[in-house]
Amino acid sequence: MPSTKEEVLSESKLQEPSLYRVILHNDDYTTMEFVIDVLKTIFHKNSAEAEDIMWKIHTEGRGVCGVYTKEIAETKAEQVKSRARQNGFPLLATIEKDG
Q: Is the domain covering 28-93 a CATH 3.90.76.10 domain?
């Protein structure tokens, strides 16, 4: 149990930030090639990882692209939505708390 204000502040600074998963959802219009491109360019996956995640999205309806702090997860989800809209696809990216 901390005994001084300084110890309390020190303990609160050491807490790890919450992490969030970025999830891509399957739809009937977005091409597999586009999903792979998004996984490689936005999430920095190699070709094999991107293909594995794409198949998971295709077969299970959704797939985790990465786990990040909240701000980074939100930014990546927005990047996906923006790029999808620019290319005429309805690809949905959401975030959910990890764990």
A: no
C-alpha–C-alpha distance, residues 51 and 46, integer Å: 9
Contact 2, 8 (CB under 8 A): yes
Transcribe 23-76 into DSSP letters: EEE--SSS-HHHHHHHHHHTS---HHHHHHHHHHHHHHSEEEEEEEEHHHHHHH
How many alpha carbons fall within 13 Å on the CB side of residue 17? Answer: 9
Of all helices (H) and strands (E), which one includes residue 94?
A: strand 92-97
Q: What is the pLDDT along the chain (99 residues), one digit of tens a residue?
A: 556 666 655 566 678 899 999 999 999 999 999 999 999 999 999 999 999 999 999 999 999 999 999 999 999 999 999 999 999 999 999 999 998
